[in-house]
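User: Let's play a game. I give you a shape written as tokens, and you guess the letters that built it. Ready? Here's round one.
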């Protein structure tokens, strides 16, 4: 099956086209270009929209706006192409890209998103309890490099691909394809924007 996968939860959005486990193409850009990236991946692979058998979207946690863009794109594609959708945690995809690593996403507000007991949580970087030598990946690990390294963690160079939630891992982790409306984002906390007072 040909899977179109993408993640828009972090400032660098990733997309990939995968057929039966083989990566046909990948891109890294930003959330606003995810549909253009999907089109380019299909064109470069000599495929058309009718060849896509499923869509996989990153479910976060991450940027509220980025998540909404990615899930809206997944729902639109699922409706237009008549294909099922699966959601994959951005943190789990990061971990899959660097086996044994601890995924850390910048949550803004001087916090990071991490996995705690298998669930996503937002905590202050100074509250992380890490074993010396723990490999930390993700844009949160890059942002809080000095603090993490002071605690004995190992953080790859900023440009290392392991810091990106690469969509090829979303495709590999995807299970339970179904209706797009059943794929929910992992927000962890309320959005920054508040409704205006009447």
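Assistant: Ready! My guess for every position:
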């Amino acid at each position: 099956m040909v899977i179109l996968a993408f993640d828009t939860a972090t400032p660098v959005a990733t997309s990939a086209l995968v057929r039966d486990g083989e990566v046909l193409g990948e891109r890294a850009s930003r959330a606003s270009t995810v549909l253009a990236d999907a089109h380019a991946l299909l064109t470069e692979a000599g495929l058309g929209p009718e060849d896509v058998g499923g869509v996989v979207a990153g479910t976060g946690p991450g940027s509220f706006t980025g998540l909404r863009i990615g899930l809206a794109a997944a729902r639109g594609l699922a409706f237009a192409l008549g294909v099922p959708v699966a959601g994959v945690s951005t943190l789990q995809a990061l971990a899959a890209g660097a086996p044994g690593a601890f995924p850390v996403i910048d949550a803004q507000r001087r916090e990071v998103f991490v996995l705690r007991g298998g669930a996503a949580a937002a905590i202050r970087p100074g509250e992380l309890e890490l074993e010396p030598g723990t490999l930390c990946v993700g844009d949160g690990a890059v942002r809080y490099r000095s603090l993490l390294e002071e605690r004995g963690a190992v953080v790859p160079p900023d440009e290392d691909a392991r810091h990106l939630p690469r969509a090829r891992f979303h495709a590999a982790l995807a299970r339970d394809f179904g209706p797009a409306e059943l794929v929910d984002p992992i927000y962890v906390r309320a959005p920054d924007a508040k409704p205006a007072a009447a």
